[in-house]
Specification:
This protein is mainly alpha-helical and 300 residues long. The protein has helices spanning 2-31, 35-61, 76-104, 114-139, 142-171, 178-205, 212-222, 257-274, 290-299, and strands spanning 230-239, 242-252, 278-288.
Length: 300
């Protein structure tokens, strides 16, 4: 299961990255007198736990199908994504609350050297986002996609913190709260991305039709099998990193039941060997007259 192994290795990368950055941000924020950096550290800390959940979810999702779970355990992925989103929403709420408290009683301006720390963090988090989002696309993992957006949202919140600290440092007295306002804007961005992560995971749980490109590919590849005259209904639903397909295939109505049975197995094997990431493939054979299909093709 190369997809599953790749996803798990990527989750370990996220855990280590977030753990190290949470420590760096927290220390720099404390000694550099920057609540925006501390808010950033809070988000990275929640990202550590979120990445651990992703890892646990990916590990559980790779379990093979059993009697109670004939389609495997992949549905745990969007469930884990929901928990990750909850972590993000809670962390955003904490950041907003503490920022408002700081605005009511302004603190000292942040230290200028914290800008150097933030610049390095921004670069690393953007690199991390690109690594993880690439792996999420390769594997089709919604949990990895959520994890990737954690890195991107972390990079954006760090940019906002950079702006806030820069204003506070450059303009001095009277602008100390710029750092805290930056943290509030960062929290708003976290909430927005939480929705972007939540929406596709909800669609996955609800078996929403979101895979038109894959449906077109299934239809096209099916026509490569000798004896398949066309396709009718084609439904795709996602569970973890696997796509389960229900396909109605048109065949010559004059062939025997055994021939139709053998043809459906050839079609199933052909689809699974030519389309990456397919799980269960259910083929329903629809009989039709060969002459009628040929007329339809000519007219089309």
């Amino acid at each position: 299961m190369p997809n599953e192994n790749t996803a798990i290795r990527t989750a370990y990368f996220s855990i280590l990255s977030n753990f190290l950055l949470a420590g760096i941000k927290g220390i720099a924020g404390f000694f550099g007198n920057s609540y925006a950096l501390i808010a950033d550290a809070i988000e990275s800390t929640t990202d550590v736990f979120a990445s651990l959940l992703v890892l646990l979810g990916l590990t559980y999702a790779r379990k093979p199908a059993d009697e109670n779970h004939p389609y495997g355990h992949g549905k745990v992925e969007p469930l884990v994504t929901f928990i990750v989103v909850a972590f993000l929403v809670v962390s955003a709420g904490i950041i907003v609350h503490q920022s408002i408290e700081n605005i009511r009683s302004p603190q000292k301006s942040p230290e200028a050297w914290t800008l150097i720390v933030l610049a390095a963090i921004i670069l690393w988090k953007e690199i991390s986002y690109r690594v993880v989002i690439k792996k999420s696309r390769q594997t089709g993992s919604s949990a990895l996609r959520a994890d990737a957006w954690h890195h991107r949202s972390d990079a954006i919140t760090s940019v906002l913190a950079l702006v806030g600290i820069s204003i506070a440092v450059l303009f001095g007295e009277g602008y100390e709260t710029a750092d805290d306002w930056a943290a509030i804007f960062a929290a708003g961005f976290i909430l927005y991305n939480s929705y972007l992560i939540f929406r596709p995971a909800l669609g996955e749980v609800m078996d929403e039709n979101r895979y038109d490109q894959l449906v077109d590919q299934v239809r096209r590849v099916s026509m490569e099998v000798p004896g398949i005259l066309g396709t009718e209904k084609c439904f795709v639903r996602k569970a973890g990193m696997r796509y389960h397909v229900d396909l109605h295939a048109l065949v010559d109505g004059e062939i025997s039941v055994r021939e139709g049975h053998d043809l459906s197995h050839r079609l199933k094997d052909h689809l699974r060997s030519h389309i990456r990431g397919l799980g269960h493939v259910l083929i329903h054979i629809e009989p039709t007259e060969t002459a009628e299909v040929e007329r339809n093709r000519d007219s089309g």
